[in-house]
Amino acid sequence: MKMNFNDRLKPNTEFIVYAPMRLSADHHEVLNQLYLPVLQSDTLMAYLYLHESTAHYKPLTHRFHKEIMDALSIPLSAFSDMLEKLEGIGLIRTYVSNKDHDDLFVYELLSPMSAEAFFKDPMMSMYLHGRIGSEQYKEKRSRLSYPALPDEISDVTRKFTEVFRHNETDEFELPSEDFKRDVQSTGANVDMDDFDFDVLYTHLKGTKIDKKFFNRDVRMLIVKLSVLFNLNAYDMKMILLNSTNQYRGIDKEKLKYEARSYYQKEYNKPMPALTSVRQKEPDTEEHADEMGYITSLNGISPVDRLNDLKSFSPSDTDLKLVTDIIANTTLENGVINVLLEYVFQIQEGELPVPYTMKIARDWQKAGYQSAEEAYQSIIDYRKEQEKRKRGKPGRVRDGEKKPYWMDKEKAKDAEPVNYSSQKTAKDDPELQKMIDEFRKN
């Protein structure tokens, strides 16, 4: 399991963009036609911003993530989600510095696949098909297609040596520097380790399929097909038997066809439906687990929770803030813990004293007695905000005043939050991150 390096992201964390090429008109066409339906506009905008903004800096200039937050008007949690999608689809590689006390991210930008490579990649084309449907898929494929060379023609192109003469010189040396170049994406980010080839080779003993047929391209295709169609080593053996010639090796196009046919036969479905992991609907057990976490906050000291949030290095101001809330309000421990984590998330790891105290006083007036009640108030508020965005403002009773902490105009220190109308925290990055961080601590 990979470490979640995005936990190190802070507004003042430095980053470098490594982009040895510029996007061309063809790149933009492929991004708009093929990648946009898969990534959605906000994620693609983050990719384009990293590309275009880098042109205004010298190569490998150190920059701060606060710049991204300000330019795109998003919190870091939203950028982290976008980054995951861009990594998964193969448009960005992310590196972190191995030096001690050096918080530095390096984002290597890869150019998009060509239209031909995209449509012939089983994972990318299948994902696009699932997002836009057969009709639009066919339209895009037709729009981006290009006819083959005419038949019955002969190549009469002249060679270099037929046109140019070579003059020897003692002064010339081949350059050793790195130059601008097009580093192209290879598609969905999968690893060879995602499929157990040792087990497959064991299954293939005694068959006509020689191990030498498995070059890197074939192995990568097998990995993608196994992920796409949920195939194990035995399934792949049966598919390979129908797509391999003992003299010519493995036919990659037939391998794709046989894998799709095998899936349709085994699962009685025409195509697998690929969706984003974050789009998965939360089930009852997941919701119960989330609420179990919220309930557990009732039995934790706010000082202990503050230590967990601040990695056992809270500032004197943080400690004084928690002490003041305990001493000057009647809030229970669970309510205070939800308050601390809520502010900690929307303020990107900070606990502004005036802002936090205002919420504490409003929650005290509201009479929240438990972590569950405080948590539900956040969910209800986000649902109300979502209705207002859709043009259906919630009804306010005469004389009712909106609490200070809900007024984004007055809460100047608060980062804008993308509120959601969903009932659980599973698909809410802010609240889910709060849950994940608690479990780690």
Automatic annotation (TrEMBL):
Residues 313-377 form the DnaB/C C-terminal domain. Residues 395-415, 424-441 have a biased composition (Basic and acidic residues). Residues 384-441 are annotated as: Disordered. InterPro entries: DnaB/C_C, WHD_DnaB. Residues 10-256 form the Replicative helicase loading/DNA remodeling protein DnaB N-terminal winged helix domain. Pfam families: DnaB_2, WHD_DnaB. It comes from the Bacteria. Belongs to the DnaB/DnaD family. This is Replication initiation and membrane attachment family protein. It comes from Corticicoccus populi. The lineage of its organism: Bacteria, Bacillati, Bacillota, Bacilli, Bacillales.
